[in-house]
């Protein structure tokens, strides 16, 4: 596994590592704490690095967020070392992990429509910045989401990005929709 490039994200506390191979088989992996990452050998190694707040990866990128005041140079070197240690056996393990997200088998039409819009118009932009978005559920006109990766701790995610998502869903689906981040 090689690091192709390293990019800052709009979140000043997150960096995006672009990789030479797909880590997750196209399934997002999002860890908000060390306990959640215990079954993921790469995320667990990254959480051993002092100052790591969250780990997110999807396809061939990995985003690491750190706590305010941590030294990026030290964290980047240590994360890079963990990535370079991913061998074929670990890669196979990572690709076969059960999803870490709270997937709901519910397949109702509204959820499908919302996910379709998010897949087409929102998630690619978030992934470009090292993040993602999980649709947690729907209750009446309330749509519950959780930001992942760089978006999870980004100040603009709870303001501008949230407003844009809400306007999009109101325009495309129902003018009464309220988007609520978790």
- Write down the overall mean pLDDT: 85
Derived from helix and strand composition plus strand pairing, the structural class reads: alpha+beta
Q: State the end-to-end distance.
A: 33 Å
Give the C-alpha Rg.
Answer: 16 Å
Number of E-type strands: 8
Main sheet?
A: 5 strands, antiparallel
Strand content: 25-35%
Give, in spatial order, the strands making up the sheet with the most strands. 1-2-5-4-3
Fold-level CATH name of the largest domain: Ribosomal Protein S8, Chain: A, domain 1
Order of secondary-structure elements: EEEHEEHHHEEHE
How many domains comprise the coordinates? 2
The stretches of 5 or more residues where confidence is low (pLDDT under 50) are: 100-107
CATH architecture group name of the largest domain: 2-Layer Sandwich
- Going by CATH, what is the homologous superfamily of the largest domain? Scaffold protein Nfu/NifU, N-terminal domain
> Which overall shape is indicated by the principal axes computed on the Cα atoms?
globular
Identify the CATH class of the largest domain.
Answer: Alpha Beta
Number of helices: 5
Helical residues, percent: 25-40%
Question: In words, what does this structure look like?
Answer:
- This protein is an alpha+beta fold and 182 residues long.
- It has 2 domains: 3-95, Ribosomal Protein S8, Chain: A, domain 1, CATH 3.30.1370; 109-181, GMP Synthetase, Chain A, domain 3 (2-Layer Sandwich).
- The protein contains 5 helices and 8 strands.
- The chain has helices spanning 41-47, 72-84, 88-95, 109-128, 160-172; strands at residues 3-8, 14-19, 29-31, 52-58, 61-66, 131-139, 142-149, 178-181.
- The chain has a 5-stranded antiparallel beta sheet with strand order 1-2-5-4-3, with helices on one face. A 3-stranded mixed beta sheet has the order 6-7-8, covered by helices on one side.
- Helix 5 (160-172) links the parallel strand 7 and strand 8.
- The longest helix has 20 residues, at 109-128.
- It starts with a strand and ends with a strand.
């Amino acid at each position: 596994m090689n690091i192709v490039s390293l990019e800052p994200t709009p979140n000043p506390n997150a960096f995006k590592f672009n990789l030479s191979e797909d880590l997750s088989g196209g399934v997002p992996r999002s860890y908000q704490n060390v306990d959640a990452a215990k079954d993921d050998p790469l995320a667990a190694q990254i959480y051993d690095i002092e100052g790591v707040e969250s780990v997110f990866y999807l396809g061939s990128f990995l985003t690491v967020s750190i706590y305010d005041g941590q030294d990026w140079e030290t964290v980047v070197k240590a994360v890079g070392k963990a990535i370079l240690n991913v061998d074929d056996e670990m890669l196979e393990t990572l690709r076969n992990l059960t999803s870490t997200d709270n997937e709901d088998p519910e397949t109702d039409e509204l959820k499908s429509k919302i996910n379709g819009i998010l897949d087409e118009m929102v998630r690619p932009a978030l992934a470009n910045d090292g993040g993602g978005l999980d649709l947690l559920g729907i209750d009446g006109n309330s749509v519950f989401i959780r930001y992942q990766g760089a978006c999870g701790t980004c100040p603009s995610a709870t303001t501008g990005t949230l407003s844009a998502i809400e306007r999009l869903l109101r325009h495309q689906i129902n003018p009464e929709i309220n988007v609520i981040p978790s």
